[in-house]
Amino acid sequence: MERLQKIISNSGYTSRRKAEELIKSGKVKVNGIIVTELGTKVNKTDAIEINGTVLKVEEDKVYYLLNKPSGIISSSHDNLGRKTVVDLIDTNKRIYPIGRLDYDTTGLILLTNDGELANILMHPSYGVEKKYVARLDKYFEICDLKKLEKGIIIDGRISVPLKVKVKKNDKVKNYSVIEITIHEGRNHIIKNLFSELGYNVLKLNRLEYAFLNLENLRVGEYRRLTIKEVKKLYEYKRKNTNRKVR
Ligand code: URA
Known about the structure:
Largest sheet: 10 strands, mixed
Helix content: 10-25%
Shape: elongated
CATH superfamily of the largest domain: Pseudouridine synthase I, catalytic domain, N-terminal subdomain
Structural class: alpha+beta
CATH class of the largest domain: Alpha Beta
Bound molecules: uracil
Radius of gyration: 24 Å
């Protein structure tokens, strides 16, 4: 709760002194009721109206790191009524995910109401590194590492992973597990990369996003980012532009 004149001036509408004058002269309504008392305390969620115009009050910024389960939509609303990542977070703020993970993909996803940071992180020039682990439906042919190294054309644009590591490769059981780091944000990019090489991704999990990981978070769990982490995200620049394919 904050003093009405402070909320008005903090919103950038006018100075504190002018806000006090507006209140005293009966020009300000809170939740539809005229308020003339200067010390009145209001909530940021209260509807404040000045001369008939609704005041836009900045919400406090919040940042969450979620370990997304499979079977959840990466958006703030789903027309089919399916559960979204926002439904998993206990908040009354209007948050949304930064980027997307497919319905069946698990792992690290950030959610916020900070549009500025979301735009920065999703901009292709920012090149945030994302590390995934993919289980493929086949034994992984080592010659395909070379193909990944050179880059794969997807929808007319080349995609070059930053790092690829074969974690498991079982010829008898005919499956493989590949760790792959990319800096692209295109939808279905990992599935499309492997599909071009003739593999199906059976399971996909995002392990890392920039310098953040899933440490101490089980599937479905989330935590708030620290102020330090938020600051670091604002300052984050892709350091490793050299491809390392092993
Ligand atoms: N690439 C994919 O194919 N799916 C995801 O969910 C994320 C990256």
